[in-house]
Amino acid sequence: MPLTILTDSDVRVLLHSLNREDILALQHNLAEALHDYSTGTQETSGCSSANQPQRISIPSGNGQTTLFMPARTSTTTGVKIVTLASGPAPKPSTASETSSVSSLAPSSPAPSVKPSVTSSQSTTPRGSLTLLDSAGIPLGFINAEELTAFRTALASTLIFSKRQRVHSITVFGAGKQAYWHIRLALLLRGAEIHHINIINRSFTTTEPLMKEIYTSREWTSLRNANDKLRFTVMSGEYGDYARLLKEHVRSADVIFMCTAATSPLFPAEHLTNSEGRKKGRYVSLIGSYKPHMIELHPDVLRQAVEPDHRHHHHKHADKGGVVVVDSLEACLKEAGEVIQAGIRAEQLVEVGELLMVRKAAMKEIEMGGAGEQGLKRWLEGGNVIYKSVGLGLMDLCVGEDLVSLARDRGMGTTIDDF
Predict the structure, then answer these.
(1) Helix (H, G, I), strand (E, B) or coil at 71
(2) Which helix (H) or strand (E) covers residue 250, if one does?
(3) Residue 215, C-beta contacts closer than 8 angstroms, at least 6 positions apart
């Protein structure tokens, strides 16, 4: 059995070679794995939750945390080991800047409210994924840095792909997670997207992302996806931050939150008051992975799981009465937003369950909802919150597909008879 080794450069080149059809195929395989995770049994499916050990977290004294994430599919066993920052957020800045990419010069500085910002440490996971076949023979060894961000965005865009409106997208963060959320959104729905608003702790740390988008040949077709597509950057250096933040959150059809924040990135009222609830949004929270880490105010989650009343739908967008998660067990243990909001297990639904529409519809009826049509309406146009802390199963499923693609395309390094 040959061993395929993919360096960070190999993974990056391979991922950037993927077209929309490739992404849809990878999403299909990931969706099947997550469906089996949520609905399978230990005997019937290798991907079932019974076959997925909880990850192990080992903190170090320098603000870093090492995660050990074992997993199994029907054909593969493996483990991802990564180290990433887990320190507290720095003191927030006092102002912000907004600018189109075509005009990056800052405006006159103006004091404003203090924005919530993320840790100054790099939050990019660094490590590796090891894959073994069903007999325990090594078949793949993959640098996990790019892979982790890609598989997270791949899962996050499962619901995004079902949304009716994706004209305006607001992204918090400017690292690899933000990068791949933006790229996959454009690959999947580029012709429909008009505005991508990027909010980050500083303009300087956003420049590498914008330079890549605007100068790299790998982004040529995506940045020209349609004549209306515009990028806006807002940071903690100039301008009326409070007003602009509220504007970008309220106008968004989709919000991708990709930071290691330890306090909410915007006030709950932007989404919870009557004006904020008029519009349905898809909000994806993928940055926090510990109980003290939080990107979205707990009040937003509490409102999302409140029972609906008959008059509610005349004024506000639909809500499902639940928060969607990648893993119920993991999010109850690790997700800061879920824990701090006091969300109970019965108020969560795994994304793998939603992929089995009829079963999910029955659960929705039990909670007083409208069944299949209500579920479809909610997923496509209502207020949907998705929280992910990451699963080793995601890495294993996507990693196995990348090894197969690399072998087909002659990429990476192959060691025969390892």
Answers:
(1) strand
(2) helix 241-251
(3) none
**Do the Cβ atoms of 129 and 147 come closer than 8 Å?**
yes
Residue 109 token pair: 């500085």
Residues 6+ apart with CB under 8 A from 321: 304, 305, 306, 307, 308, 347, 364, 367, 368, 369
What is residue 322's DSSP assignment? S
Report residue 61's pLDDT band, with 50, 70 and 90 as the boundaries: confident
Token pair in block for residue 407: 């072998």
- Give the per-residue pLDDT at 108: 31
Is the pLDDT reported for residue 106 higher than 50?
no
pLDDT, residue 307, reads 79
Residue 109 backbone zone (phi > 0: left; psi -120 to 50: alpha; other: beta)? beta
Q: How many residues does the chain have?
A: 418
The CA distance from 38 to 162, in Å, is: 20
Q: State which H helix or E strand residue 246 sits in.
A: helix 241-251
Predicted pLDDT at 361? 58
Query: Are the C-beta atoms of 408 and 414 separated by less than 8 Å?
Result: no
Asked if the model's pLDDT at residue 98 lies above 90, the reply is no
Does the structure show a pLDDT above 50 at 272?
Answer: yes
CA angle 379, 226, 164 (to 5 degrees): 10
pTM to 2 decimals?
Answer: 0.87
CA dihedral of 279, 282, 286, 288, whole degrees rounded to 10: 30
Question: In angstroms, how far apart are the furthest CA atoms of the chain?
Answer: 67
* Contact indicator for 284, 256 with CB cutoff of 8 Å: yes
Contact criterion met (CB below 8 Å) for 84 and 67: yes
CA triplet 236, 239, 244: central angle to 5 degrees?
85
- If residue 29 lies in a helix (H) or strand (E), which one and from where to where? helix 20-39
Question: What pLDDT is attached to residue 43?
Answer: 73
348-350 β-sheet, strand order: 97-100, 230-235, 195-199, 168-172, 254-257, 282-285, 384-387, 323-325, 348-350
In Å, how far from its chain's centre is CA 384? 13
Model confidence band, residue 314 (pLDDT cutoffs 50, 70, 90) = very low
Q: What is the pLDDT of residues 18-37, one digit of tens each?
A: 999 999 999 999 999 999 99
In angstroms, the CA 124 to CA 117 distance is: 16
Instruction: Measure the CA–CA gap between 117 and 92, rounded to whole angstroms.
Output: 6
